[in-house]
Design a protein that fits this description.
With 462 residues, the chain is an alpha+beta fold. 52% of the residues lie in helices and 17% in strands. The model has no long low-confidence stretch (mean pLDDT 78).
Length: 462
């Protein structure tokens, strides 16, 4: 791929980090060397050290000619050495005077070094570091061309740069080898992922990532595959159970259609038509619930919408008023005048609609259904209670499972309504519980009460 080498890589990142560290170290070392050289030049320059040694040797010589030859030999030797050094910009100048001030030796013509001790003096238009030591016999004077700070910095950086130029590759090579071999488990991991067939193979990857820092990555992928396995198992079970549930109403549709076609009289046709309508209605209801459950399972939660929950519940009860009136069932709402919240209206609609449908299906003629809203410090509670047959305590833990129907009654249902309620509660960020509902007029029975608890954040309370 064109420009693929420009893609970010860990190897390049580590190399750049090492280069940056080398650069910072170089700057620090360079500054330290510069300060050290400046301190040495200020406190104990080289001309003073050399001058002391030469002066000590000359004090043993009385003959001016011999002293001049000795000093000339030293001058030639030292300047010969200086020619091979980088931190020199000119020859070392030496002068020797006797006690009467007569010049005994001068390495080059020029001004006499006048200032005693260590100092600076311009000689032949150039600044020199100077040193003068007066002894019993001789007055020795030395001058060395001074180096500017820029020259000192250039010499130091050149020497240090050469060291780093040699040292950097020596450190880079083992680092690159360490990075390359260290990333080998990741490359094996990537090959294992590429070889996966998610339609068939969801087993754990079982890849040894070797390093502690990489193991959480493998564990996270294994956990993801585990969730996919469970999800696939649920989907397969769901499809199997849905096909089984659809088989019955479709068989009834086929039977009633055959009966309708071959009916001998009007009464038989009417009976077959009524049975066909019931089977079609049951199939449509089951299909709608399957679609609702699939939608809640697969779609991302919708953005919360501001609404008046009390008004929302009143509207849902008004929609069910006709069906309740036909069966002689009383509907009631116990709620504040207004209750502003922020909720996923799709999930809320599914939850409340299925709870009301479930109650209307199981509550007998003359029964009651009550919807209540309550605000507590811990959050919001929405409850739907009825005085129907209820659900036995032993069956309540499984009541919210898919295709689970209660026992002890002859009401037909798909067994999906409460599963939709539980999934919608999850989408809303709450939890739904099942308990005893309303008692019958004679004081017996307990009905069922489904309570949704939502966190206070839906009310705008942190």
């Amino acid at each position: 791929m064109k420009f693929e080498w420009l893609q970010p890589t860990l190897t390049r990142r580590l190399i750049l980090a090492l280069l940056l560290a080398f650069t910072l170290c170089s700057v620090l070392l360079l500054v330290d060397d510069q300060l050290d050289v400046q301190h040495q030049l200020a406190t104990d320059p080289g001309v003073r050290q050399l001058g002391r040694q030469l002066a000590a040797g000359l004090e043993e010589i009385d003959d001016p000619a011999l002293a001049a030859r000795v000093l000339d030999g030293h001058t030639r030797y030292i300047n010969g050495l200086r020619m091979g050094q980088t931190m020199t910009t000119g020859p070392l100048l030496m002068q020797l005077l006797d006690r009467q001030g007569r010049q005994v030796y001068a390495s080059a013509p020029g001004d006499a070094i006048a200032k005693p001790g260590v100092g600076e003096q311009t000689i032949a238009g150039r600044t020199h570091w100077t040193y003068r030591q007066d002894g019993p016999r001789w007055s020795l004077r030395l001058a060395e061309p001074a180096l500017s700070r820029a020259q000192l910095l250039g010499f130091a950086s050149g020497a240090l740069g050469m060291q780093l130029l040699v040292g950097f590759p020596l450190m880079l090579l083992p680092l690159w080898i360490a990075v390359y071999t260290g990333l080998a488990p990741l490359r094996r991991f990537a090959r294992r992922l590429n070889s996966l067939d998610l339609r068939q193979d969801l087993a754990p990857l079982d890849v040894d990532l070797r390093y502690r820092e990489l193991r959480p990555l493998g564990q996270a992928f294994d956990a993801l595959l585990s969730r996919l396995r469970r999800r696939r198992a649920r989907e397969r079970a769901f499809v199997h159970e849905a096909a089984h549930e659809l088989r019955t109403p479709l068989a009834v549709v086929a039977t009633q259609t055959h009966a309708l076609v071959h009916a001998a009289d009007a009464d038989a046709r009417a009976t077959a038509a009524a049975g066909l309508q019931q089977a079609i209605a049951r199939s449509a209801h089951l299909s709608r619930q399957l679609l609702d459950l699939a939608s809640l399972d697969n779609e991302q939660p919708a953005a919360p919408v501001a609404l008046d929950l009390a008004h929302f519940c009143a509207q849902r009860l008004a929609e069910q008023a006709g069906a309740a009136r036909e069966r002689g069932i009383a509907l009631a709402l116990d709620a504040p005048d207004q209750l502003p919240v922020r909720l996923d209206t799709v999930a809320l609609q599914s939850l409340l609609q299925n709870l009301l449908d479930n109650a209307l299906r199981y509550v007998g003629r003359g029964g009651r259904i009550e919807v209540s809203l309550d605000v507590a410090p811990e959050g919001l509670r929405l409850a739907v209670a009825d005085d129907g047959p209820g659900i036995a305590p032993a069956d309540r833990p499984q009541a919210f499972e898919r295709f689970r129907r209660g026992a002890g009654h002859d009401v037909q249902g798909s067994g999906l309504g409460l599963a939709i309620v539980a999934r919608a509660a999850d989408r809303l960020g709450g939890q739904v519980t099942l308990g005893d509902g309303l008692t019958w007029p004679d004081g017996s029975g307990c009905g069922a009460r489904f309570e949704l608890r939502l966190p206070a954040i839906v009310l705008g309370i942190p």
